[in-house]
Specification:
single chain, about 400 residues, mainly alpha, MetI-like fold, about 70% helix, flat, disordered N terminus
Length: about 400
């Protein structure tokens, strides 16, 4: 029997140590997010025990898959032993519901990370290129984890705080756990109060109305303007095309004061039509710029063929240009909708009557000492979640529309 190569044993030990530590880190993070206190992870113990177990398995088994198998078994064993350790204090979840999802999520995240990191790497006969590849993947994983953490943890804190009573928030504001034993009616009392008592249901309708109308008006004007600067010949065409984004050189706070004076004189202040004048004006330049870049990539031959067949200019736009521009229209519409949904400055300056408040304007009423933090966090979740769902649903259109027009052809 040939002796086991030292490189394979060393690779198995390193992979076992890394995987054991990864399992414990993920499990500890989940325990921190679902328990009443911070979870202490014995990383040193996990690293050493994973390395010993990995090296042992690497010495006992043959084959180039040994380090990968050792890392899986070492990580699972270390995580299981740590979870079943004396008293199980680090993993004492506040509700049994969290135990199974935490275990499944730990296995899924750790398994996917290991599978990604070890692909195309021959650990049994590792060389310099494999080491460099593993280091680059490890650095990429650390960066990805960092950015995911700074995004997910604040959002989780916001959701967890919205589901807690005021006394619990004051006694332990850093507690990230969600106690499901209190029942759904008690958990969602903040959302019920915000939607009914603070009239956020009406604010949702107002924001939806303003955002949808802004999208329709902006797209209608942007399509005609973008088509004109890309297809028609008229004096000042080049100047207009280059100065589309000129309005963004002026901060919104500079424009809001003269607009406030003009709208007060015209009777448009404290009305939703006033916002429907401002919002398209502020979103139209970027929409026009994005659609212009996309229209430049569309072949003119199709439009010319349509006009030869007897179609009018508007008919060509409706039957040919718009169907070919659906990805760009979807991305621009999503972008404009997000701007209108989240806009605060003009809504705060122009709206005074609670009956016509938008969501961002209504959030100001929750930011006071008399209103529990639970209600403020519930309102923040109500404002954030719908736009997050819409964004992730239409993300592919947004990315495609933003990158369209980069290459002409």
């Amino acid at each position: 029997m040939m002796p086991r190569p030292i490189s394979g044993i060393l690779a198995a030990a390193l992979m076992g140590a890394a995987t054991g530590t990864l399992f414990v880190l993920i499990w500890s993070l989940l325990a921190t997010l679902t328990t009443s206190g911070a979870s202490s992870a014995p990383l040193g113990w996990a690293f050493l025990s994973g390395a010993v177990l990995g090296a042992t398995l690497g010495a006992l088994r043959r084959g180039k898959d040994t380090p990968a198998l050792a890392s899986w078994l070492a990580g699972a064993t270390v995580g299981l032993v740590w979870g079943l350790a004396s008293n199980g204090a680090p993993l004492e979840f506040t509700h049994p519901f969290w135990a199974t999802p935490a275990a499944v999520l730990t296995w899924a995240l750790a398994g996917h990370t290991i599978r990604y990191g070890l692909r195309d790497v021959h650990l049994a006969a590792i060389d310099r290129y494999d080491v460099e590849r593993l280091l680059l993947r490890a650095l990429r994983a650390v960066g990805f984890t960092f950015f995911i953490t700074i995004v997910v943890v604040p959002f989780w804190f916001m959701v967890a705080s919205s589901l807690k009573p005021r006394a619990l928030l004051l006694s332990d504001p850093t507690n990230l756990a969600i106690d499901l034993s209190r029942g759904l009616q008690e958990l969602f009392v903040g959302y019920r109060e915000v939607l009914i008592t603070f009239d956020f249901a009406r604010f949702i309708l107002n924001s939806t109305f303003v955002s949808v109308v802004t999208v329709v008006v902006t797209l209608a004007l942007a399509v005609l303007g973008a088509y004109a600067v890309t297809r028609l010949r008229f004096p000042g065409r080049n100047l207009l095309s280059r100065s589309i984004l000129l309005i963004y050189m002026f901060p919104a706070i500079v424009l809001v004061i003269p607009l406030y004076t003009i709208f007060s004189q015209l009777g448009l202040r404290d009305t939703l039509p006033g916002l429907l004048v401002v919002y398209p004006a502020t979103t139209l330049p970027v929409a026009l710029y994005m659609l212009r870049s996309y229209f430049q990539t569309l072949p003119k031959d199709l439009e010319e063929a349509g006009m030869i067949d007897g179609s009018t200019r508007l008919g060509v736009i409706w039957r040919i240009t718009l169907p070919l521009s659906l990805p760009a229209l979807a991305s621009v519409g999503l972008y404009v909708f997000m701007i209108a949904w989240n806009e605060f400055l003009f809504a705060f300056m122009f709206l005074d009557s609670p009956a016509i408040f938008t969501l961002s304007r209504g959030m100001v009423g929750l930011n006071s000492q008399e209103v529990p933090r639970q209600f403020l966090m519930a309102g923040a979740v109500i404002v954030t979640v719908p736009i997050m769902i819409i964004f992730f649903w239409f993300e592919k259109y947004l990315v495609g529309g933003l990158t369209a027009g980069g290459v002409k052809g």
